[in-house]
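Slide 14.
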Amino acid sequence: MAQPPLRPQKTAMLVAQQIVADINRRGNTVGDRLPPERVMLDEYSVGRGTLRESLRFLELQGVISLRPGPGGGPVVQQPDASSLTTTLTLLMQFEKAPFRTITEARTALEPMMARLASERMSDEKLEELKQSLDTMYDNLEDQEVFLEENKRFHDLIAHGSGNVMFGYLVDSLLGILDGSAIGIDYPQFRRAAVHKAHLSIYEAIASRDPDASAEAMSRHIQEYVRYAEKKFPDVLDAPIVWSS
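Slide 15: predicted structure.
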């Protein structure tokens, strides 16, 4: 039986792709204004409704912001991991995947990121990693600061791996698995244990030792999983849901 023909891409999506291609071709950077609507209508040969749908889509993806009023219009932005986080969360929710899915992904991915970071992280980023470590230690009594620095530490290693995909994946995974949002509490003794683990990871990366870096990160993630499974098993088994 013959397969039905593939549905052609929606015009608005094709225009959105062309707008992005033109941003790259022109070398636009964050803060640059794109051409006004009347120019874009002629350039892309589409109606106003189609163009605005394209621009709204790009705004949702974080590629542009739409500024109202005179002198406004589309302005180039730097996309971040928020759109990927939302997409992954919705995919997981419709699959009825539990939060344990995220911890398993981190267990597999983050040791490799630490290994690469030991080989590729710049001295400047290594200093930022040390600053995160020190800030966490100086604020162990403050869980909010602890959570911020915990995420920052892992983000820096992911981006320091030199693999852009890893950076955005960890941004998204940590965005989904935010301990305070899903009910995993960190008493001060656990915060101190996390800081000690971060110190071991930092020292291994600073020593440019790939094996030790991967091992330290693997041990850290496994300790987190054991703690969560012992104290908060219902949380790990709860389904991932999209929420603010």
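Speaker note: The domain at 82-237 is CATH 1.20.120.530 (Four Helix Bundle (Hemerythrin (Met), subunit A)).
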